[in-house]
Fold each of these.
Amino acid sequence: MSRSDPGSAGIPPAHAGRARGPRSQDCEAAAGLHVERLSRHFSGVKAVDGVSFHLAPGETVALVGPNGAGKSTVIQLLSGVERPTSGRIMLDGRRIDGLAPERIARLGLGRSFQTSRVFPALTVWDSVLLGTQAGLLRDGHGGGRLANPLAELAGELLGLPGWRGRRTRAATRAAAALQRFGERLWPRRDQPAFSLSYANRRRLEIARVLAAQPRFVLLDEPAAGMNPSETAELTDLLLALRAEQPALGILVVEHKLSLVRRIADRVVVLNQGRVLATGTPAQALDHPEVVEAYLGRARTRPVESDAHLG
Amino acid sequence: MLELFASQVVNGLAIGQVYALIALGFTLVFGVSNLINFAQGALFMLGAFIAFSGVTVLHLPLPAAAVLSVVVVSLLGMLLERVALRPLENAPYIAPVLSTLAISLIIDQLAEIIWSPEGQAFPVPFEEATYFFGAAYVTSTDLLIFGFGAVTTVALTLFLSRSWLGRTLRATAQDRDAAAQLGVRTGNVKGMAFALAGLLGALSGILVALYFKSVFPQMGLPYGLKGFAAALLGGLTSMPGAVLGGLLLGVVETLASAYVGEGYRDLVAFTLVLVFLVFRPQGLLGNRRLDALGGAGGAAGAMPSTSVLTSASSQRGAVRTLDLPPWGFLAVGAVLALLPAVTQSAYVLQAVAYAMIFALLVASVTLVSGALGMLSIGHAAFYGVGAYAVGLLARNAGWPAEAAIAGAALVTAAVAVASALPLLKLSGHTVALGTLAVGQIGYLVFMTWLEVTRGPMGFINIPAPRLAVLGGLNLSSLVQKFWLIAAVAALALALAQRLLDSGIGRVWRGIREDRLAAHAAGLPVRRYILLGFALSGVLAGTAGGLFAYVQSVVSPESFTVGVSILLLTIAVLGGLGNLTGAALAGFALTLLPELLRPFAEWRMIVYGVALLIMLRLRPHGLLGAR
């Protein structure tokens, strides 16, 4: 279990200063990621049970809840790895539940995994380049069309100038994504991914997701296995990302509430597959029912055992 | 009519009972070690032969000989686990599977040396009686097989469900680490599973020997494959499933042989396997665990990967890979092209020509098995398609060599893509089974499609290559053919290397390393798998075409599953996914037996031992897996 002191610095007192709040529902009814009465049952177990929420462009929403609340299952459903039992998922007005994961990814919804998946035997550089491959195939084509496989084959084999241009642009995107992590990944770009530390593998996976230039990202416990200073570093990185790409929507599943309080515009609390509370981090996380769901009892006074609340 | 049908069903059930016993051996071993034991067929064959020797040499009565055989083969099963598998526990996932393959190569060849390659009559000590029910009939051998099969199955079930040993076996199958925590000696349990597999193998071998009243050293492979297929139909993890799968397979193939034609027995059986892999990869009674077999088993580990090159401990040492740049292949080809200036010996030139063809062919295997990580045990079929295609295009259609080879490459690519379609969603061990079925179906088509291939008689009179670009020059001399092969092989390998170094190669390796992550990263996985098979098909088809030109005669023996297994073995020896390693190993291991010609029958044993040593010392191959 990860611990950081709730009383320490790193938690801004309030979120009033944040420029972007939840947008008005009326003008952005279609834009963004809309989840409607989403359910996933595993032979009787209701892992996700009628969950609804939305993620607008430019917004950061945190999905929190105790273990087994269904957070990761929601990510699996949104990214198409699992099929929902019922409910709808709309991305910019387009229904995406039932689409294959790779189609959803190409529609601009990138994701990381709870146990980071990094193509272990590939180098760090190759791993990030794979994140840019779908964009490379689409480069120069209208809409979501991919380059014809024969054109790709000829381009790669003969090194045609048009194809080399695509490669260069993809490499630029990959380099930018890696350099976002400063000295953590860039000097190690020629090492195999399996040689990275646990935290660096998490960073690598996030770099790969970002290299694809998604419009929405789903991050499944990005700070797991990171110590408090690394968590703070990741938090700063995500804040910088938000500042740079004001239209990027981020859905983050995270237990470390220090991170959640700093980056989230809104928090959705899940418990036993249902939405328990939503609101600003301050409202949602201090809601008595939420505290009880996390601790198993109502909180009376701050004690040592609350440390994991961040 | 109905009686005939009933007789066929009874007949099918009898042979199905034998398949069920072999399948149970697979299932047991698979359960405790998550491994497909390719040596099961060899144990089966040994069972039959030891009983045979017991009766003919030691003059034992059949029951005593059978007991002797069962005991010896059970011990051999344990020995196999100890020697070939236990040292590889933390090796890459692929290593133990290939280790059992190596063992089966060695045992099969040793059997040919000990008992001669010819089939021999198995003395049946009792008169066979036939019982009629109306027009339907059943023989005493059928009844014997039924009886033994049923008793063994029931005894095994009781053993597993009631005895403590059986419980430890089931516990180990469910969760090896947890069982070890509770004090179960999981190593011994594995040994026991292999002993039981040996017991089942020996018993089924003896029953088959009784059924056909003959034994032959090559019987391991076909029955091993059938047992495999039966286990797969049943679901690999399910004991009742294995029995059901065996019976189903037996009945279906017997009916096919009775109503469609004897040649179609195996064709129908392996088609059934492919159909199951597509529509119900978890088998009749299996569970979804099959989705996460083999390589994908690592997906649950600390560092998720679907690669067959990862190991259970998910630790990897950095493996240095040596490989040539694309132009390196052209340079090597140019150097080899000078050989005729050094020697005019037809023997040497012929041997080196075959070596170059094999280099190309193994490269084709490593593209799919190594770069894409989809183990192929069916590439001989693609090789054959290329050879027959050149035969048809050059002889029947009169095409010049460049058109015929290109045509053969494209036809083979199309066949490879078509056969990849049912394999798209498979990974780990199941894809190896799928390609095995593809390879076997290919071979059987070559055997039975008489109008085109002339079956076992062979496709003859393939003309010498005629090059249209050189004004219809006929390459009739061996030296000219040698140059053609050197040029085509070097060019094809250079292009393939360039591809592996390109973005396409990177995506292939990404799909191998983690298919789920590849999907999630938006990579069109299906497109790249099909592309990989197509290009592998181009290489295999080209190799087959060149082979047809050198041979001028093509027959199905060159394209058996045995050849496919050999190709995969060589690809592993070279380093999976490493084109230079594949080409070098293919080249060297084709020439090596020529040097060892006086010991020709030891060739496969040398391969097997080399493979075992390599798996132990350098599991990533000679030049390193890439």
Amino acid sequence: MRKTSARALTAAVAVTLLAAGCGGGDGGSATTADGRKVVKVALWNYDTTPEFKALIEGFEAENPKIDIQPVDILADDYADKVTTMLAGGDSTDVLTMKNVTDYARFATRGQLKSLDSEVEALDKASYSGLDPFELDGHYYAMPYRHDFWVLFYNKALIKPADADLAKLSWADYASLAKQTSTGGGTSKVYGTYLQTWRSVAQAIAAAQTGGDLLSGDYGFFKDQYELALDLQKSGAAMPFGTAKSQKVQYKTIFESGKVGMVPMGSWFASALLEDRAKGTTDIDWGVAPLPQIKGDGTKTTFGSPTAFAVNKKARNSPEAEQFVKWASGPKGAAAIAKVGVVPSYTGEEVMKAYFAVKGMPSDALAAQAMKPDSVKLEMPVSDKTSDINQILDEEHELVMSGEKSVEQGIEEMNKRVKSEVR
Amino acid sequence: MTLSDSTTGKRRRRHNTLVGWSFILPNFLGFAALTLLPVFGTLLLAFTDWNSYSTPEWIGFDNFRRMLDDGNFWTALKNTSWYAIGHIPLTLAAALGLAVLLNRKLRAVGVLRTAFFFPYITSLVAVAVVWNMLLSPELGPVNQFLKFVGIAHPPGWTTSTDWAMPALVITSVWRDMGYYMVLYLAGLQAIPGELYEAARVDGAGAWKRFWHVTLPGLRPTTFFVLVMLTVSSFKIFDLVQVMTEGGPGRSTLVLSQLIYRQGIAQGRFGYASAISLVLFLIVLAITLVQFQLQRRSER
């Protein structure tokens, strides 16, 4: 008797373990209990990124037969996590493409469904940010928002009388920053804050000089690096090393009122609006066009569209496509403009809704900032992009932390891109 | 012995074997499915070009040839070795020192032992983030202290290519020493007290007792600790990823990180497998040498 039960127990344990090992990973049912089709959408920081909620709620209200379920991923880990999910054959229906570099990687690996016919049907005259998603004549994602860089400023520290913010050159910006810096220790106020990303120096230089970030010839970075290092040295900007090791967030430091200007993507506006509404900050802020290298009066900035793509292994492909199409069209654009996010589709009505958002700066300067003459892509797409990205990131860090001189850094970038990328 | 006796004996033995197998079977199946098969898979993948989607293409030794030309591989190999050279002896010394100190009858020795063990069970991300703050070049308490004692230009730690690796080693020694201290404590308690008494009678001082009684008595423990430390040093990943992400520049890029970048991030699973294979062979070779030395010293 005892023997049998011991044997039964062993067998039971074995079966349970096997079942536990094999089960899981099917990700739940493709329909809800009440028969609605489930569309899972991989996205980031759902609670703090209001446009996702706006899109999902707007779409569900119009399509009661579809249930959109967010798959929430930490923003910093998003690219890695989605890469791992796709490598493991995950069936999440819609994947948000945080940037074009990741998109190119997923698309060239054949992990995304072609959306050519949906793109065909778009009203291209009022639609921006689509070009970078073209890969050999095909499209595998449709942008729904199109952020670009502007200059955020703290109205308590930067007075329009100090400088003509609509026509800042980078040299004007630097002297304004130095003029605005005061104090020391814990009461230190910085004239500007430069986020530690390489784009702050490199993408600005590329967009405004016409340089090519994939070229392997990076002499055009020189002036922007010298500007950034000079700001750091003069105490007008926080040292790179401090910002990096403390993981300083541009939002936190700007909202604390301890910095005059922050060059940053337009997405920053919606975060500021939200924090003011919540009462976590009372900062009085404005936006101005990004300062310029060339003095010819045109406003050139850089940006990066954000898009939705359909997973090739999606379980409810038609419904997923329906969502992607809706989100990038006029209705999706209206929904996100209302939460202060710049959509890809910018019909007149949509932009009116954008500036009507409570708390959004609606002065002439803001209107100018939101209407740049040209938006260059932050990082061009190619199968070499992610390798080059890595090299430029590493060398950027060395230049900004003073480990290498600007000349040495640029020389090393040129050398490494030529020898390591193939 | 009769015939029937021997058949029952055989049957019982077979029965026992089956029962034995059935006990390890669940664990073995899990191990086989999740570890053994992937390991053999890696071995094969190392000779292919594979992006996890297409069919793997057999390319012979191309991945290894590519590795010879890859500056990142050599940088990572050098960095990993530096890390090991710093981490292994320092952790060993710190763990041994702590164990000897805490093996005495002190007040609240239990509390102290627990305190030193704590870092080991603390979440690694928390450890990395807190040490990053401690070592922050401008505002961190470590550099504030160094400035206070008169060092005008304290190290830049994780922001400096020269000091990022020492910063990692310090953090990892702090984190790991508690665990190895526990192993050493167990080893110390296994050394018979009579040996110390005899040594004392012979007139041996504290240092001589440590050198001639404690250390030889701990040889098996030290060997085990050394092997474990070697293996863990060469596959270091998490701490580096959170604390420096391989930076500044490539100054703390380690092999596991390169494998991760090439495989998961860039989708070159064949090449990543080839690097893993090389890493495995390196660790295997070092461990074999250690075993050989241990055997010789036992003779």
